[in-house]
Amino acid sequence: MIWLIAAVVVIAAAAGITWALTRSKNEIGTAAEPEVEAGEPTEEAEPPSATTVEAEAAEEPSEPEAPAIEKPEPTAGRLVRLRARLSRSNSVFGKGLLALLSSDKLDEEVWEEIEDTLLTADVGIQDATAIVENLRERVQVLGTRDPAELKRLLREELTAVLDPDMDRSINTTGAEGKPAPVLVVGVNGAGKTTTCGKIARVLVADGNKVVLGAADTFRAAAAEQLSSWGDRVGVPVVRRDEGADPASVAFEAVKEGDEQGADVVLVDTAGRLQNKAGLMDELGKVKRVIEKREPITETLLIIDATTGQNGLRQAEVFSQVTDVSGVVLTKLDGSAKGGIVIAVQRALGVPVKLVGLGEGPDDLAPFEVEGFVDALVDGTD
Ligand SMILES: Nc1nc2c(ncn2[C@@H]2O[C@H](COP(=O)(O)OP(=O)(O)OP(=O)(O)O)[C@@H](O)[C@H]2O)c(=O)[nH]1
Ligand SMILES: [Mg+2]
Asked: Residue 35: CB within 6 Å of ligand 1?
């Protein structure tokens, strides 16, 4: 009798595994996943031999080992949730400006200080001058010294310069029945691979079928890093050995995406090579080769916000070889200054679409002008 009960327990556990696997397979909609291979249902469902039963029966009935597919957080309201992460230096900047604007006497010297504060916060010279000119004129016309009114004016000027009408959506709509290739570029260490992983999570959470392409073949660890992001949300990663041609990996990824009926193929690239010209040639080739199969719907340039104006100059080179359609500003939770958002948009003429606010898997938020300006002006805590 005991044998019979034990056998039933084992068969029930095996059935549990089978169910969990099938369920997660449907949820993520991918074909061959390493997690799926790990537990072939047919083998598990074999009637257990007496010895197996004995071993199993001696142990506590164990939980079925379902693959650890994570459920990412929804993106709505992320900027609000992560607002406290925005570097404290940003709220210091907002408060500093307000204090200056509320000075007893708004003379030439104070206006210069206001401009300096904007420049120190990484707002480029063109916008810093424009903000000061506009504020100055409006303060004079209104003749106001009311702090609430001054705050409103500052908020309006910062909002205007950030251009709230720019389209900040990520285009992930491919041609009819074809995957949308999204290319991710940027200098080394900017956060490309991490951002690919974070975006994949968001896409999966929104019900998209995603394939990742590890076109950074410069370091073996790069593909490994991307795979670990993919594994967490059950997204397959197309990768080749270190030193393989990045363009062919990118091509293979799009092909794989097409064959698997994926909605989006995210292609991670290298940020460093022996020399800059080589890297740019390579990126140009990656772009051309992908487009032999499908037009790229979005090219995201990843910029580390903490590198300020200097990082911006380096990033500009990338926009010369790829048609950058959006910027992801990472590490805004670090020592970055808020004004860099303004400078980036001005220099590149493309919108900041997403912001990275931490190393955690869901620490990526859609950039919203209003929420960002509120955080600057009202502080982050
Ligand atoms: N604090 C913080 N760290 C981040 C953010 N985004 C990325 N990082 C960290 O930045 C480091 C570099 O990120 P990667 O994604 O490896 O950068 P990469 O551009 O792929 O680098 P290469 O492949 O070497 O060119 C990692 O330690 C990330 O965890 C962010 O928004 N905030
Ligand atoms: Mg990388």
From this structure: no
Q: Which helix (H) or strand (E) holds 299?
A: strand 298-304
pLDDT at position 131? 96
Domain that holds residue 152: 86-161
pTM of the model: 0.81
| Annotated binding-site residue? 330 | yes
Determine the Cα–Cα distance for residues 186 and 240; give it in Å rounded to an integer.
21
> In this structure, what CATH number is given to the domain that contains residue 290?
3.40.50.300
Does the C-beta of 186 come closer than 6 Å to ligand 1?
yes
Q: Are residues 196 and 336 in the same domain?
A: yes
Q: What CA–CA distances, in Å, run from 223 to 175, 201, 236, 269, 309?
A: 28, 17, 12, 10, 30
Instruction: Please count the structural domains in the chain.
Output: 3
376 within domain boundaries: no
Both tokens assigned to 17: 């595994």
**50 inside domain:** yes
User: Which tens digits make up the pLDDT trace of 285-334?
Assistant: 999 999 999 999 999 999 999 998 888 888 888 888 899 999 999 999 98
